[in-house]
Amino acid sequence: MASKERGTLLKEKHVRYIESLDKKQDTLEFWLTEHLRINGVYWGLNALCMLRSKDVFNREDLIKFVLGCYVESTGGFAAFPRHDAHLASTLSGIQLLKMYDAIDSLSKSQIDKCVNFIKSNQMKDGSFQGDRFGEVDTRFVYTAISSLSILERLTPEVVDPAVDFILRCYNFDGGFGLCPGAESHAAQVFTCLGTLAVVNRLQDLTKAQVDEIGWWLCERQVPEGGLNGRPSKLPDVCYSWWVLSSLSLIDRLEWIDFEKLRGFILDCQDEKRGGISDRPDNEVDVFHTVFGIAGLSLMGFEDLVPIDPTYCMTYDITNTIKKYPYN
Amino acid sequence: MQLKNELDLLFWSSELLFTLAQLRQFPKVYWIWNHRIWVLENHLDSSVNIWKEELVMVSKLLKIDARNFHGWLYRRIIVRKIEQLTGEKKLFEELAYTTENINNNISNFSAWHQRTVLLSKIFGENENESNAKMIHDEFAYITNAMFTDAEDQSVWFYIKWFIKNKVVRETLEPSEYARLLQELHSNVVMINQDDLEFSGKENNWCLKILIVLDDVLKNIGIETCIEKKKCLEQLINADPLRKNRYLCLLNDGQ
């Protein structure tokens, strides 16, 4: 570790790393990760936005790719052309269009169908299944509600039961699980608080609950400086986003040590080829790259474009979203 | 329904074998767990037997990876199904399962979590008298646990939930509740003293829980000799990663 130069975000290298991902179409790995492609593109573009390098991706090509993932028969987005639509890839598709200010490249009837696709996956208890195969998880509540919010199509019929479901996922320790009764996990805390933030219902939590949430979240920081997702687990760069965005949403961002976390994230950089890994000296990937950079952005380091903890997109983009409840 | 009639028993059994092999290799993939539930729900054998076998299977997987939250979630689904099919609750058996897991590894937070879920259910169904007995036993259990490993946060998160739990507060006679809390309080002070003598440093988690205990005792009209303010000031130095939280609590108290 001594050789590592502490204290700089290798911005140019990260931009080049993200740029290179699109050019790996001759590798097996590229094709094996098809089922996550649209998410990967969103992670890459989001990182580029924070790094002020949005133009590295070709806008027209990307919009074409996203529209190619739209599934006419169901109205959702798939992770890759000719795959099935899913709520997780639907949010990524909508985010990508929003980031290019291109929601209107969908026709009115395509948007209507998309809204119906999302709503049709809501269950009686207010939760959402990811697709018709019935996997229920607070992740899909967030992806559904955030998608509808970006499309500015939230309604009380969808929002109120979803909020009830989220509140039922609150646990004894101050965290949230993936469904009622499930163990607290930092990524689920983000999806739950994020949902409440999108629909302007964070005030449904009591002051005592918010203090407990803040306590549980700040105990995620380990002596190395990184954050873990659950007690007694190893730190991982992606929690720089899940934990910090959550703390930010309840206005307790400074309850962890910024300098220590910054050092941990910077130690996870690949200094030669760019990109950020989960832990120092591991293989980098675009998922940890974007969430490492997003963590630094939330803490206000490195002159990055500020990111909105509610939507995980930069503020210049999210500022234009109409806030719920609509007047 | 259609599938169920078209496919024979061999298909469903081989599908279970196939997903088991996948789970052994990729125990953290949501889709495999989810598919397996679908297979069980649609299995030609709709008796309780396949679900009971499944409980044995998931116990084995949790032995290999005791913190796999997919496994714990899956276990809750399987148990619920067995309860529905047999009409018999398995609350106490499952509570014993968490005890076994915690005794194996006191840092198994997944098991502590499951314990809060089960105890809450048991409290809701029990008569007052048996609840009182359980609460006494639980005070003894957590005391034992914190003496076993006072460094690990799992047990402390559990303790802070347990002492503030509504049923715990309301089931016991006020004097009995106060006595158990004070006993717990002096045990935490003792662990902290031991740490101080042994390592020259106070135990951060003892300080954090003393602050909670101080609040709980104050609420029932008992002053402790431990000063909350002093604990917070100590933590600011001893646990600098979280110093802003302690500063916040100090301000709140003023």
From TrEMBL, chain A:
Recorded coiled-coil stretches: none
GO molecular function per UniProt: metal ion binding; Rab geranylgeranyltransferase activity
Domain Prenyltransferase alpha-alpha toroid as annotated: residue spans: 9-313
GO CC annotation terms, alphabetical: Rab-protein geranylgeranyltransferase complex
Protein known as: Geranylgeranyl transferase type-2 subunit beta
Top-level taxon of origin: Eukaryota
Cofactors that this protein relies on: Zn(2+)
Pfam families recorded: Prenyltrans
Co-factor binding details: Binds 1 zinc ion per subunit.
Annotated function: Catalyzes the transfer of a geranylgeranyl moiety from geranylgeranyl diphosphate to both cysteines of proteins with the C-terminal sequence -XXCC, -XCXC and -CCXX.
Enzyme Commission code(s) on record: 2.5.1.60
Record keywords: Metal-binding, Prenyltransferase, Repeat, Transferase, Zinc
GO biological process: protein localization to membrane
EC primary class: transferase
Originating species: Zygotorulaspora mrakii
Sequence similarity: Belongs to the protein prenyltransferase subunit beta family.
Complex formation: Heterodimer of an alpha and a beta subunit.
Catalyzed chemical reaction(s): geranylgeranyl diphosphate + L-cysteinyl-[protein] = S-geranylgeranyl-L-cysteinyl-[protein] + diphosphate
From TrEMBL, chain B:
SUPFAM superfamilies tied to this protein: Protein prenylyltransferase
Enzyme class at the top of the EC tree: transferase
TM ranges: none
Protein's UniProt keywords contain Cytoplasm: no
Entries under Pfam families matching the protein: PPTA
GO cellular component, one term: Rab-protein geranylgeranyltransferase complex
GO terms classed as biological process: prenylation
EC number: 2.5.1.60
InterPro entries reported for this sequence: Prenyl_trans_a (IPR002088)
Protein's UniProt keywords contain DNA damage: no
Alphabetized UniProt keyword annotations: Prenyltransferase, Repeat, Transferase
Catalytic reaction equation(s): geranylgeranyl diphosphate + L-cysteinyl-[protein] = S-geranylgeranyl-L-cysteinyl-[protein] + diphosphate
GO molecular function, one term: Rab geranylgeranyltransferase activity
Physiological role: Catalyzes the transfer of a geranyl-geranyl moiety from geranyl-geranyl pyrophosphate to cysteines occuring in specific C-terminal amino acid sequences.
Family the entry assigns: Belongs to the protein prenyltransferase subunit alpha family.
Protein name (Swiss-Prot/TrEMBL): Geranylgeranyl transferase type-2 subunit alpha
